[in-house]
Amino acid sequence: MRTLNTLRRTKTIATIAVFSALYAALRPVPLGPMIGLSTSFSVSDALVPLYGIILGPYVGGLSVVIGTFVGMALGKAPVFLGLDFLPGLVNAVALGFLVRRKWLPVVILNAGLIVAFVLEPMTSLVISIPVGATSIAVPYVWLHIVAFVVLLSPLSLKAAQWIQTLKTGHLTAGIALFSFIGTMMQHLTGNLLFEIVLGPPIGGNTLQYFQGVWAITFFTYPVERTVIVIISVIVGVPLVRILKKSLFADKPAIAVSEIPAREIG
After folding, report:
1. DSSP symbols for 74-109
2. Is residue 69 within a helix (H) or strand (E), and if so which, with residue range?
3. Residue 264 has pLDDT above 50, yes or no
4. How many domains is the chain partitioned into structurally?
5. Does the residue 58 lie in any domain?
6. Sorting pLDDT into bands at 50, 70 and 90, what band is 252?
7. Using CA atoms, how far apart are residues 128 and 141, in angstroms rounded to an integer?
8. E strand or H helix at 262
9. Which of 4, 119, 201, 260 is deepest in the core (most CB within 10 A)?
10. Closest to 51 (Cα-Cα) out of 85, 9, 80
11. DSSP code string of 179-246
């Protein structure tokens, strides 16, 4: 038993080292500009959902945290006073719990993020969209509400089953659904950090500044999040299969996350 536990611990440490290094290496690679900041999203953002799905909440989350700080050491300058790991951590942990069918903590966390963002004084609640001679008011968080509804629906529980089957259609749908939910939670966390770090009293930017940013990102964030989901699916489908047949060949795909649960914390 002691030998088995040692092997599991060694496997977990090796997994964290490999995935942290991969995440760190991709941190400096730009994916698209962050509006309102002189930096860009990273290709590593598209890996975060897969870390939660494949590694689970503990190893996946820890790999994101370590990878973020190593990425800073490699030249990816911190944006949020060193708290840059939080958005990815939320994504990986949430999807790691969903993979384990621990649905309620993710619902509570998602709801809390939405409420916190809506109540933040620097948030624009609605964006006016010109339509002919008039305009319509659309909630800024409309896509986050869609993602939350998907989370509340039976689809979020079925997605875990679909991933476990490893069938192409089911695996694609499962990773896409999870990536959508996770990346929207990551976006909310990033938005909150953006407001806290750049707003008063730390950053000193005014409400008018944030209104201008939200008026632009309202149109860009759905595209940006869609691209991240697509990349996650393209990379995730073959990656899950490869890991199932090699590194985690002794475990069902969905149970990769079960390996570290007894070893971390």
Report:
1. TT---SSTT-THHHHHHHHHHHHHHHTT-HHHHHHH
2. helix 48-73
3. no
4. 1
5. yes
6. very low
7. 13
8. none
9. 260
10. 85
11. HHHHHHHHHHHHHHHHHHHHSTTTT---HHHHHHHHHHHHHHHHHHHHHHHHHHHHHHHHHHHHHHHT
Helices 207-245 and 48-73 pack at an angle, to 10 degrees, of 110
Cα–Cα distance for residue pair 151/167, rounded to 1 Å: 22
Q: Which of 31, 35, 33, 73 is nearest to 48 (CA)?
A: 31
Structural domain includes residue 74: yes
With beta carbons less than 8 A apart as the criterion, state whether 86 and 80 touch: yes
Least confident of 30-34, 46-50, 75-79, 142-146: 30-34
184, two tokens: 């929207």
Query: Measured in whole angstroms, how far is the alpha carbon of residue 34 from the centre of its chain?
Result: 16
Structure tokens of 4?
A: 């088995």
Model confidence pLDDT, tens digit, residues 85-134: 999 999 999 999 999 999 999 999 999 999 999 999 999 999 999 888 88
Tokens of 70: 């190593």
Structural domain including 184 reads 2-259
Q: Are the CB atoms for 160 and 106 separated by under 8 Å?
A: no
Element (H, E) at 128: strand 126-131
Asked if the structure places residue 264 within a domain, the reply is no
Is 77 within the bounds of a domain? Answer: yes
Among 54, 24, 65, residue whose Cα is nearest residue 235: 54
